[in-house]
Structure formats: structure tokens, C-alpha cells
Amino acid sequence: MRQLMNRFGKVLVMAVLAAAGLWLAAPCAQAQVKEIKELVIAIGVDADTLNPQEQTTTLIQNMCDLIYDNFFFQDPTGKLHPRLATKYEVSPDGLTYTLHLRKGVKFSDGTDFNADAVKLTFERAMDPKLRVPLRFAIGMVKECVKIDDHTVALKLSYPFAPLAPTLSMTLVSPISPAAIQKYGDEVRQNPVGAGPYILKEWVKGDRLVFVRNENYHGDKPTVAQITWKIVPEDATREAMLRSGQVHICYKPLPSNLAALKADSGITVEMPLDTRTIFMGLNCQKGVTVDKKVRQAFNYAVDKKAIVKKILFDTAQPMDGPVSPVVFGYQKMDHAYDYNPEKAKQLLKEANFDFSKTVAMRTPQGRYLFDKQVSEAVQAYLQAIGVKTELRTYDWPTYTAGLLKPLAETELEVFLLGWGPLILDADMGLYGQFTCEVNPPKGLGSAFYCDAEYDAIMKDSRKEQDPQKRLALLKKASQKVWDDCPWIWLHVEKFVIAYSSKIKGMVVTPTEKFYPQYITLN
Length: 521
What we know:
Elements (H helix, E strand, L loop, with lengths): L10 E2 L2 H5 L19 E5 L14 H11 L3 E3 L5 E3 L2 E6 L5 E6 L13 H12 L14 E8 L2 E6 L6 H4 L10 H7 L13 E7 L3 E6 L12 E6 L3 H10 L4 E3 L6 H6 L3 E4 L2 E10 L9 H10 L2 H8 L4 E3 L22 H10 L7 E7 L6 H14 L3 E7 L1 H8 L10 E6 L7 H8 L17 H12 L3 H18 L2 E8 L2 E4 L2 E2 L2 E2 L5 E2 L4 E2 L1
Parallel strand pairs: 2-11, 2-12, 16-17, 16-18
Antiparallel strand pairs: 1-5, 3-4, 5-6, 6-8, 7-8, 9-10, 10-11, 12-20, 13-20, 14-18, 14-19, 15-19, 21-24, 22-23
Helix pairs in contact: 8-10, 13-14, 14-15
């Protein structure tokens, strides 16, 4: 999209995409496609909320996309395609984005999708009284102004280069105004959107059932019902795929990928992801307040061994603070290669108290071998004399703990992943490390806060020239890499396995997949 942007004049950048053909359309409109009565997907975690503005988890945002739809769809190459909005315009100064909304669209409860609904969406997303963990992504939007029933203008406090792809995020997906009025806060359990599916049933800890929205504005999905089966155990999800109990296995065991790939009845995809996996290190509480301790913990862990021996190359070690697939990625000159002796020396210089027990936390079933990775990190820390206690939590409980303010948080050393939903480093560097995103306002659970870093990132947000932005993002990367608010572990590959009978499923590097227009041979 950067090539389409013209900062010196008003441009219509979406019209050319419409002419190129729509993504996620029903295969061959004229052909008779056999309906798939039910598609069963095995996933590792339950949803915490289905309110798009409250989202923190990519998998659940994936679900929300099917219920609510998006203004634009970002394809695997990063290009945008019209959905609820047909095009956008940018003012010469970059301070106004005009969105043209698709006409004739209704929410699944029959309420009209229009400018009033979009205005309400942005007002809610910007309301400081509401919990919106990803608010930083649209923090430059001052106001959403209704122009007419099918046109709104977003007024910005400063030009923001990645705003167009940001509009493809679940964060700004509109909810039916009637549903908000009816359910209030409980809309998170009673989602009503304008997407291709409707929530039919939600049995906590067991399944979510989506049925086709027969009044969807786009092509009719080929899949009549999607059942998301919650199966925390990796091996069980895989066994269910092999036995035909499920059609899709979300994140199977890395150790079994070779066998899965050799099975003619199974397709495995694993594109390099935007998701970085790390051990967060609390920068304002506990033993990890000291920068030398944080650096020591980085040298103590053999990231290459974890990738090779635990993850079976379904990831690659981090060599910078964001994934290589995003704009703004920089490989750092300095690497934290495995060096336990250097780790011990840094701890000695920091006067580390070896009598203290460091609290470690991990989820299970959210990331590839998450508990096993955490156990490996625990073993590496213990090998340099650090006492640790590792506790495991289900995902909804874990996410609740991530949002506690500094005074209440138990987090010292904790496993987490961060997967930017647009292919731009801003969402990683700004979204995890600026003071603004510290809990409870955001998801920067390491509580990293540095005025110099914040100034660099704010300058990068205002900069419109791509090369100057790159230079600023590199400067920010170098600073945070040295400060080590994380143990820099690895970048995941998005591993998903499914029946080879499935054709036409879209899988993206932002860790999303879209099965609504598949065929099943």
C-alpha cells in the first residue's frame, strides 16, 4: 500500500483493488459448489470475549472477523481489498481519511450498517472508560465524523503511515448498535455483526458454533456451520485430525510435523509469522528491574537449541525485536548467543540475590509447545543458579493476569507471544514497549517505559517518508534490544494442519485463516 500512497495530493487508493478482483470470494460464482454442512476446527484455547474492541488474541480475532467482517481484508501479501468499506481517500496533509461504506449491508439482527454505526464503533474504541487493549493502534484518530449515511471522515492528530492497513484490523470492526443497546457490556458474549457467520452456541471450555449468515452482503459461504472444538492438548488435536473427527488442527505438535507432512490425507502449512515468542521480564518490579539481570537471562538461554530440539524448526531465533516479515524489521548487529558464563558474570555485577525464587508463568495450548518452551527456559535459568517456580494457566485466566496494573501484577518472568496484525513494525515496537501500553491500558506486560524510546517511536509515527521511518524504527529497535525487556526467544511459523480434501483455504502470516469459501473434495 505504501506505493499507492501519495502524500502530496488527494488519492483514491482502493478503486484499483476493486478492479483487481475480490479475495475470499466464493469459488467460481457460476459453478455449482457443494455445500459443506459442518466444518470442525480443533483449537487449543477458549475465547475470553467476542467483543472486537476488547480483543487481545489473534485466534479469537480470527473468529470475530467471521462474525463482524472488516472494513478491508488484508491478504497474505499485505494488500488491502474492500469489504465493509469500498474505498478510502487521504487528504493532502494526511490528516483526514474518508471512508466510503458499502451500501445495502445489514447486521445479522437486521439493523442497518451505516455511518452512525461506524461513528459509534470509533467512539467506543477511543473511549478511555472502556477496556480497549489495542487502542494504541488508532491513538492518532481524534474524531470520526459522519459525512452522510455511507461516508465517514477520520480526523487524525498527526499523519500515520500505516493507518490504511490498520483499518483492516478486528479492533475497528463494527458491532450492531442495537446489540450494544440491548446487551451493554454483555455484548462480549452476544456478538452481532455484519459478517458471514452468526454465533449459535458457546459452551465454555468445550466449543463455539457458528452458523452461516444467510443475509450476508458478500458471496454465500460454502460452509454452513463452523464448530470450534476446544482441545488444549496438542497431541489430542492431532489425533482428532488423523481420525477424521476434525477437519482442521490449529497448531499441531511440532515434533510430529514430519509425519503429518508424509500423510497424503493431511496438508500442512507453516508460513513465517509476525508472531514473536518471548519471556517478558518485568522492568519495574522484582529482580528483573536491573538491566544487567535481563541481559544475563538472555545469555543464559540457548534459543537455537529450543528452536531445533523442542520446536523442530517450526520457528527461527529472534535476531531483532520484530519479525522479518514486517516493514521496519532490522537484524541487530549484536546477538545474545548462548553464553552461560557471561550470564553468571552479569549476575555477579548486578549483585543478584540467588536466595530469591523468581516467579515464572506460562499458558498451555496457546503457542507452539508453550509449556515445554517455558520449562526449557526454567532449566537454563536454574543452570546458572537462579531459583524459579513455574506455574501454568489456562488462556482466559492468563490473559486476565496480563492486564493487571503494576501494583497488582504477579508477573516477573512470563511466556507470551505478540503477533502484529498488520505487516508493519509499529504494532510491535509501539504496541509492546511504549509507556502508553503498560497495563491496564495496554498489553506491554513487561512494563518497559523509557522517555527516549517513546520520543523515537512518536517521531516514527509522524514520519511519512518510508526511508526516514525505517531509520527511526531501526534506532528504536537498537535501544529496546539493548535494554532487554524480553528474553528474545523466537519467531513462530504459523503451523496449521488440515484434511487434504480441503481446497481454497486462505492462510496469512498474521496467523489467521479463512475457511468460509473452501471446497471439500
